[in-house]
Amino acid sequence: MDLIATDHLLLFCIALAVIAFLYSSVGHGGASGYLALMALFAVPIVVMKPSALLLNLFVSSISFLFYYKMDFFRPKLFYPFAIASVPAAFLGGYITLDSAIYKVILGVVLVFAAFRLLGFFSSKEKELTAINIPLALACGATIGLLSGMLGIGGGIILSPILLLLGWATIKEAAAISSLFIFVNSLAGISGYVFGGKSFPVESFYFVPVAILGGILGAYYGSGYFSNKTLKYVLGTVILLASVKLIFP
To answer: Residue 44 — φ and ψ, nearest 5°?
Structure first.
């Protein structure tokens, strides 16, 4: 099965590399971007979820390594979210949603992701406060379940929560989110496979492209890199994809 038409393959790969670059620069795996891209290129629904999770694994791990080397990772802040999210993501990966329902839920999440990139949610750092463990556990479980069901890592949701509640700085949120995305993606894939579903081998063809974009993005992002223009472009593309999913 060819996921992308031959005459569109080059454009798809370029867009994929740009998405991986941009997301990894802020500590994300890029799943919401990959899903939006696949929606725009009419990739089959059954392929979108596992493919996004697979690409997420590679890009988020690369991003985490760069941010970890820069000493931005706070383990005590990561664990409460991960403890609750991993089993929930596994369960979500096991669940198969009806295509129509999947499209609507994914479309709504992509709207959130687009608004996040377009600056509708504050990314300014607040005065740091102590983490609320029960609230963190609840957030982790909710994000994990959603991540597994849709094929996202959850970083696009976790990052603004960390910043809005004053639990982490921007760089710390990026480091925490990248590892959070990795463990959720791994749990989601495990649940997907455990549920007896076949994994699309064609998805692996795009891994090198995502890795290249991820390495470059993480390298610049772990320093002092920012490109608002790309964020706005990507946010617009994701918003268009969400509209296509919700109103086919």
So the answer is: -55, 140
